[in-house]
Write a structure and sequence with these properties.
The protein has about 750 residues and is an alpha/beta fold. The protein has 27 helices and 23 strands. It starts with a helix and ends with a strand.
Length: about 750
């Protein structure tokens, strides 16, 4: 019966997100699909019950297995692990990736490698190896800041519950596979690794596009070197998925006919090629759907399956959830299935119409994950899809083949063309008009997604009006909600605070930073400044596009080191620094070259930065040292907050003597809780109820200091610490206020 497997696949998909990911908002959809199945397909009631029962049991057992993995004892270990260099990344002197323990558990691997020999050997090798070492077997570290990558949820969706942190290790020997299946998988990974190394020697354009489009390998700095791709919503073109699968299917069928291969044999061979592609790409989650759909297409052509296209999609979803129960947790898997679901109803429509509709169909998902959208992205996709199909891919293929056969002139010509495409896309990065929605409510996303599909079916103009209204509400919602927040961001052993008083009034105090210690000459290049990206992502998640006041309390790197990268990501109206700091070398090196047209002002005691904020220190010009730190008294909703940067106790005493300090409810402990700050007299004068410490986990300074904590305890204060709680958010709405810690 036409449509049965489609509805069944959707039902099992909703069951999956409820059981495996606890998305209980899917319950109404599950009930509706269940009623639809029971009423429309009564003759298959027994089959329906069997499928639901089987998948429910499978998902439940999968969750039990993951929970049992998570309950394994953690601590110090000495062990051997199997790793494949194809799954490793090298940053500084740190090696990260995946490893397999002797009990066959897959874990995240972090190896703080101190020796050049194993580091270089793993960079050079392409086959699986055995590593012997000691370190910590730990649970996956939780997310520390809101609106950033969730490692626990993401790795759990991939069946990984632990991380192995090696402090000592050595490469022992090549790994010997235990069975034929493992041998085939590892051999394919070895070929993949060798190809990646070969592609790394290509000119930049051919290298970047070739690795992502043909190998499913994305360099860590790919999106930094190829601007505009994310902003224009072109990421789907640079992830190995249905695009490559469809190409492989069509190309082989044509080659098979040219070689005279029979139709049946050609369809059998293409199935093996598809499975090989899945293994070759490392089991990319978004690729599972595309391969399964292509396999069902081959089975339909062979006459093994008699299904409509919509039912084939349902079968592919059922198979994908069996192979990858966590595939619907991640954006790649969600887009993969949603895009092909939309295509089911667009057969016969012009290409431009399909592109526009699909762009609108996936928009709620993109907003849920990225919080922003540029309308020109629709036009970019309209141009990019045929451009890549008919020009970029052929030129890229020719260029790679020319490089393989050492035809230098042709290689350079093809690379110049690809570089031209890269440059053109990069120019869109600075285009104005991006709409920042913030993190939208899941209910509104669901309404828009379902409403878009309903509009495709009934084509009523009033539906477009409703959808436009909901989008308008989502866009304005962050600025319509009353109240504000003060957020103490976890930037490790550093400082960064964001205070939103109302719409279009946001102040930041410091931006964090990390002192980069000298690296040995064999270390790999460092990764991108992720702290600055996390700050920008948190702002975007709250619908914030601009900072009105940015206060840099003093010149230490852990307070201003992220500024160069941060200013590339977020607009800042005015930067404030302590009196005298503009003459320092640190300012001229870390601030001046990056401020552009942003106004810079020096501040001293008594200045008001806005109607909520008064400067309490410094009193005279200094050189941006700790003792010159800017101290601020800020009204945050119904309470007052004192922030002192790294100000020492002598500076605190001057504030008391010269400003006749009033009581405050909140005190951000100076210098990360060091004993050089937070004097007893200062605490006694302010009488704070709550203290906040911004410090790094297991930091080498021992912050917060025991003496400081003793002072706060004697004063009856409650102290929150970013090292223990991650990001700390203080919210208020009228006279009602509450705290939220990222790590409970």
């Amino acid at each position: 019966m036409n449509g049965y497997w489609l509805v069944t696949g959707l039902l099992v998909g909703t069951l999956n997100v409820m059981v495996c990911h606890q998305f209980w908002w899917a319950v109404p959809m599950f009930v509706w699909l269940l009623i639809l199945l029971v009423t429309r397909f009564k003759k298959r009631l027994c089959l329906t019950v069997l499928i639901i029962g089987s998948y429910g049991t499978f998902f439940g057992a999968h969750q039990v297995h993951l929970n049992q993995l998570g309950d394994r004892p953690i601590g110090d270990v000495k062990t051997t692990v199997m790793v494949h260099p194809d799954e490793l990344h090298f940053t500084g002197t740190t090696i990260t990736g995946f490893a397999t323990l002797p009990n066959k558990e897959r874990v995240r691997l972090t190896w703080f490698c101190k020796d050049k020999k194993p580091f270089r050997e793993l960079q050079r090798r392409h086959d699986a190896v055995v590593i012997s070492g000691s370190g910590q077997y730990e649970k996956i570290a939780p997310r520390r800041n809101a609106y950033t990558f969730d490692p626990v949820g993401d790795w759990r969706s991939r069946g990984i519950m632990h991380q192995l942190v090696l402090t000592q290790g050595e490469v022992k020997s090549a790994y010997v596979p235990t069975n034929a299946g493992e041998f085939v998988v590892l051999q394919i990974r070895t070929w993949h690794s060798r190809l990646v190394q070969w592609f790394e020697r290509l000119p930049p354009g051919l290298r970047d596009y070739g690795e992502t489009l043909f190998l499913g390998y994305t360099r860590r700095d790919f999106y930094d070197d190829n601007l505009g791709i994310q902003k224009m919503g072109l990421v789907h073109l640079f992830s190995i998925s249905g695009f490559q699968v469809a190409g492989l299917y069509v190309i082989w069928r044509r080659i098979g006919r040219w070689l005279g291969v029979t139709r049946e044999r050609s369809l059998l061979i293409v199935q093996l090629l598809l499975l090989g592609l899945l293994l070759f790409a490392g089991g990319v989650q978004s690729l599972v759907r595309a391969v399964l759909l292509a396999l069902t297409q081959a089975w339909r052509e062979l006459g093994w399956l008699r299904l409509s296209a919509v039912d084939a999609w349902g079968i592919a979803l059922l198979g994908g959830l069996l192979l990858e129960p966590g595939v619907l947790h991640n954006l790649g898997g969600q887009l993969s299935y949603l895009l092909t679901f939309g295509l089911l109803w667009l057969e016969g429509k012009p290409g431009w119409w399909q592109c526009v509709f699909l762009s609108l169909l996936i928009l709620p998902l993109l907003l849920w994950h990225t919080y922003a959208w540029h309308p020109i992205g629709i036009l970019a996709n309209l141009i990019a899809m045929p451009l890549f199909t008919w020009l970029v891919i052929p030129v890229l293929t020719i260029g790679i083949l020319a490089a393989w056969f050492n035809i230098t002139d042709l290689t350079n010509w093809c690379n110049a063309f690809v570089d031209g495409v890269r440059w053109t896309i990069a120019q869109t990065e600075g285009l104005p008009g991006e709409l920042t929605f913030g993190k939208p409510p899941v209910l509104l996303c669901a309404i828009i997604l379902i409403g878009t599909l309903v509009w495709l079916a009934v084509r009523r103009r009033w539906l477009l009006g409703i959808l436009g209204t909901v989008y308008g509400i989502m866009l304005l919602l962050p600025n319509l909600l009353p109240g504000g927040f003060a957020t103490f961001v976890d930037v490790g052993q550093g400082d960064a605070t964001i205070i939103k008083q109302r719409a279009n009034q946001v102040m930041m105090v410091d931006v964090g930073g990390k002192l980069q210690l000298p690296q040995p000459d064999w270390a790999a290049p460092r990764k991108t400044d992720f702290q600055a990206q996390q700050l920008a992502q948190y702002l975007k998640g709250n619908g914030i596009t601009k900072i009105q006041q940015l206060v840099l309390t003093h010149k230490d790197v852990d307070h201003i080191g992220n500024l160069p990268h941060f200013l590339k990501l977020v607009r800042v109206e005015t930067i404030y620094v302590p009196l005298g700091m503009q003459q320092t070398d640190a300012y001229k090196r870390l601030v001046a070259p990056y401020i552009g047209t942003t106004e810079v002002r020096e501040v001293c005691t008594g200045m008001r930065l806005n109607e909520w904020t008064t400067v309490q220190h410094p009193f005279e010009a200094g050189t941006g040292e700790n003792e010159d730190s800017v101290a601020l008294l800020v009204n945050v909703g119904p309470k007052q907050l004192m922030m002192t940067g790294d100000l020492d106790q002598a500076g605190e005493e001057r504030i008391i003597q010269n400003n006749q300090c009033r009581q405050v409810e909140l005190l951000k402990l100076g210098h990360h809780g060091s004993k050089t700050s937070t004097a007893q007299s200062f605490v006694h004068a302010l009488k704070p109820q709550i203290g906040i410490v911004s410090a790094g986990v297991n930091n080498r300074f021992g912050h917060p200091n025991k003496e400081t904590l003793s002072t706060t305890k004697e004063a009856g204060m409650t102290v929150f610490n970013t090292a223990e709680n991650g990001m700390l958010q203080y919210h208020w709405r009228g006279n009602r206020d509450w705290w939220q810690a990222e790590i409970k």
